[in-house]
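hiii, so i know i said id send this last week but things got crazy w the move. better late than never?? heres the sequnce for the chain we talked about at the cafe, plus the structure i predicted for it. fair warning i was half asleep when i ran it
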Amino acid sequence: MLARRVECFSPALGCSIARSPLNYWAVTGHLFGSGAAAQFSCSSSSSTSSSTSTIPATLSESGRHANSVQPSDKIHLRGMRFYGHHGVLSEETKLGQPFIVNVTLHCDCQEAGRSDSLEQTVSYADAFRFVRTVMEGPPRQLLEAVAEDICQGLLQQHPRLSAVSVAVSKISVPGVDAILDSVGIEVMRMRQ
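okay and structure toks below
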């Protein structure tokens, strides 16, 4: 099966969107207006037909698509290891266990790249210290709650962030009769 690229254009909004073979949508151009669904004329590269589809587009007051992460610069903190006491089982909260955490900070790094100034970006050292505080702090039952605490705290502490992605994994899995490397959760939260 050949991969298809679908491209759509909305004259009313003055923008294009494209779906790659991996089903990721990308918006090109500036979106004008706010809060309404947009009409896009869509055509596929694997056929010559064209159709019109209604694609919900929640637009922010600035005219950007409210669900898009802008810009696409990312700061990664990968493979952070902590010993914490999170879990549902009493053994987990008493004895603790190792966790691996990956964090991606979405922010505009262009000015930092131009100025070479730490004040123009998000310090990954500060982000690491906060993640460590959560992971080594008071126990939470669910990894979902741990990941949410990390996302919300980083977004609150760092106004430059447009979004945060967090993956938290347990590398020893008590109470599960299975052979596996880890169990975990991955969440992404955007600034509202």
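btw The helical segments are 90-95, 110-115, 124-135, 143-157. thought thatd interest u
miss u guys!!
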